[in-house]
Structure formats: structure tokens, C-alpha cells
Amino acid sequence: MGRPHVLIIPFPAQGHVTPFMKFAYQISDHGIKVTFVNSDFIHEKLVAALPDEDEARSRIGLASIPDGLGPGEDRKDSLKLTDSILRVMPGHLKELIEKVNNSNDDEKITCVIADSAFGWALEVADKMGIKRVAFCPFGPGSLALAFHIPRLIEAGLLNTTDGPLLASHHLGHYAGNFWHEDSTCIGWLDKQPAGSVIYVAFGSLAIFNQRQFNELALGLELVGRPFLWVVRSDFADGSVAEYPDFIERVAENGKIVSWAPQEKVLAHPSVACFLSHCGWNSTMDAIGMGVPFLCWPYFADQFHNQSYICDKWKVGLGLNPDENGFISRHEIKKKIEKLVSDDGIKANAEKLKEMARKSVIEGGSSYKNFQTFVEALKQ
């Protein structure tokens, strides 16, 4: 029997692959062989975005299986993608595991760590007699809520059959691509005063209609502070490039990039606050750096995360939409000014940062839990 061999398979979206990859690095540091499995579509994007010297190429085995959709088919349609995954990927995952296990007796796959959205992958592992672990790329509060849903249904508290309905500034489709980081923004941040910059990023899935996009742009301009804004090419109906007057007006204060090295940005001393969709990865990134939030959740667990940020931890503020679900430039300006002047929120963010730091250093709760998990993988 050789060393433990873990197969890791995330849901094919950047907000899922990123924490899985970080987790894979940590596991490999403890002498465990890791095979990281993506869909063919995501695998190509991941490999193309990795530098030649990236540690993933040497420390982690990268593999892929088909998701059932053709190269040109629309993967922004989440229902279509999910249906295809359920029909196609279980069989391909089983074949991949059999191929690995039949090729080397000393490196058989001993555990499958699958996205909590991929219950089928856990079933495949169970049928093959392989240990299985569900990895949740969202907060523990959302996980606890999910566990209680059956009880809420039994109690008659979840009795709504319509929806979910999207607010007017949202579109009914999503993007899910991998993006090259624009590191020029770090040099730009170096030139800004300490605690002055508004960092604006909505992850890889959120999409605004053009009216809301324009209002956000005008709100940032109205504040008059330096801002770094991540605008994907598919973030809105149109493109910021179609508004040369806006770009010209904010040239001295604003920096717009298609994707940013977020952890480096949030760690930069010039950043004052984070206007965020409150995805769990972004939430953890900002907490780890002690950066206050201005919350603009888009869907899923992001509204739950906002509740923790604003009501429980008190490290941020929420934006209030009007009766039509629209957030005005004046609301954006008012809340940014309130956030950056609130010393209590800043102090709470620093306290939470220190708590997070202590949890991951040797002897901390997260450190101990991870060590226990690694030992379980080796048994």
C-alpha cells in the first residue's frame, strides 16, 4: 500500500475551483498525492491561465472528464449544464477512477473529495468502496441552514412555490469563466494614499443590466475617491469601453481591470473598503485582510453572508434598493461615505482579522481541524 491518493472534484465555476485548489495544495503539503479533476471545458481554461512554473503543475495531478456539452454550447445556462453533468459525468468519473486504480497498485485512489453540489460523485465513490468527503465552498451558516430545510418544510415555514424571483437589475443568466489577472492594478494602488481606495468586484457570476451598471459607474464617480473596479467583459449588457466620457472623467481617480489578484488587492494598505457581492471566497478574503464591506449580494448564499457581515460581525453595511430593486448612485455614495468614516466597523474588521489569523496558525482551531482531517486521510 502506497501513500494516500485523494481525488478532488469541484463544481465547474471559478468560485468553487479556487478554494478547492487552495485546499489541494494544503493536502499535498502533507505527503498526500492529489488528482484534481475538472470538466474538460474548465480544465482547458485553468491550464491556459497557469504560469509554466506554477506549483499546480508539479505538486498536483490535473485531469479532466467531459461535462456532456459541446465546445460551443452555452454553459451560462446553469440548468442545462447541471442536467448534462448529472447525465454524463458520473460514468466518466467511474472510468477515470478505474483507470487510475488499475494502472498502479501503490497509488490507488483512497478518498474522493467532492463539491457539496456534486452528491453524485460521492455516490460513485461509495459504490466503489472508496472513502468520500463533501467539501462545502460556502459558509457554515449556510450549511447549517441547508441541514434544517427538511425541518422547516415539516413545520410549514417553507411553503412558497413561486420563485426565486430576481430583482430588476439582475439578468436570468450567469457567466462562469476563468480570467487572467491584471497585475498592473497593484502598481496603481502603490500610488494611492493609505486607506483611500474603494475596491469593487462582483466575482465571476454576477451580471447587471445596463441601467444598473451605469448607475454603479456614476455612483463611484460621485463619491470622488480613488476606486479599483473589476469589470468582466460579460459583466453587463454592454461594456464600460462604450462610455469613453466616463473613462475620461475618472481617469485620475479610477482604475478598471477585467480581473484582479484579489488577495493582493485586499492586503494593500491603500484599500479602504470592498464593494462586494458577498460570495464566500470574497468574504473570507476580506475578513483575512481586515477590510470593511459594502454589501451588494447577487444570489444564493450571498444574502446569508451579508447578514453575518452586517448584523452578526458588524464589519460592513448593506445597500438599500428602491421599491423596484434598483440601487441608485446616491445610495452608493451615501453608504460608501458612511462606511469609510465608521471607526467602529474598522475596529471590528481588525478584530475579526486577528481571530481569523489565530485560527489558522499552529495551535489554532482551523489548524487543528485540518491536521485531524489529514490524519484521517492517511488511515
- Using the CA coordinates, give the radius of gyration: 22 Å
Shape: globular
Number of DSSP-assigned strands: 11
**What is the helix fraction of residues, given as a range?**
40-55%
State the assembly state of the protein chains. single chain
Mean pLDDT equals: 84
Largest sheet: 6 strands, parallel
The termini sit apart by 11 Å
Number of domain units: 2
- What's the CATH topology name of the largest domain? Rossmann fold
Could you list the spans in which at least 5 consecutive residues all have pLDDT below 50? 162-177
Number of helices: 15
Q: What does the model show?
A:
Keywords: Transferase. This is UDP-glycosyltransferase 83A1. Belongs to the UDP-glycosyltransferase family. The protein is an alpha/beta fold and 379 residues long. It folds into 2 domains: 5-137, Glycogen Phosphorylase B (Rossmann fold, 3-Layer(aba) Sandwich); 184-358, 3-Layer(aba) Sandwich (Rossmann fold), CATH 3.40.50.2000. The chain is built from 15 helices and 11 strands. It has a 6-stranded parallel sheet with strand order 8-7-6-9-10-11, with helices on both faces. It is globular, with a radius of gyration of 22 Å. The N and C termini lie close together (11 Å).
